[in-house]
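In this section we walk through a basic example: taking a raw amino acid sequence and producing a predicted 3D structure, encoded as discrete structure tokens. The instruction is simple. Fold the sequence below.
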Amino acid sequence: MTNAVRGRWIRSVLIGITVVATVGVAFAIGAFAVGPNLAKSAGGYIPTAVLNMPLGLLSVTDQDGNSITLQVRIAETPEARRAGLANVGVKALDATMLLYAQPKITTGRVTYTLGGIRSPLELAVIGELGDIVAIKRVEANAKSIVIAEKHRYVIAAKEGILGKLGVMKGASVSPTNMRRTT
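The resulting token sequence is shown next.
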């Protein structure tokens, strides 16, 4: 093999290695930059802030005396209440309910942050004794909602889910019987 042939062969190998390395780096960058956005656009995305909230089981008794148990994420800290359901994907909302838990009964208007939600929601406003005092509807893409009723808890879910489960004005919730599962 002559030096000229050997030189061309080495250059060809180096070019091949450079191309493979460039494609690999581009793939890695794409996986980290595009991958999370694909999950968000598919609607199944749940932000870490929501996943870090504790899970709980909450009993609800409808107006006919039938009882059901809801699995909820509990937003019990100021940070968790501010995060709320922000940026939870539309499909993920099919199985994600949030219980905003205030440390005591509210005495004035309370604003709940809802940014980044691309689906209508409904909120069950729960008074101090566990009675559902109002159901509020929230449009898709709403930034927040203000609740003027005195309340201790609010259950947030994708529109239609609470009604199908019998969670409506006049039903009652037993917050004292809520069990944390995580």
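Looking at the output, two observations stand out. Residues 3-42 form the longest helix (40 residues). The two ends are 70 Å apart (CA to CA). In the next section we compare this with other chains.
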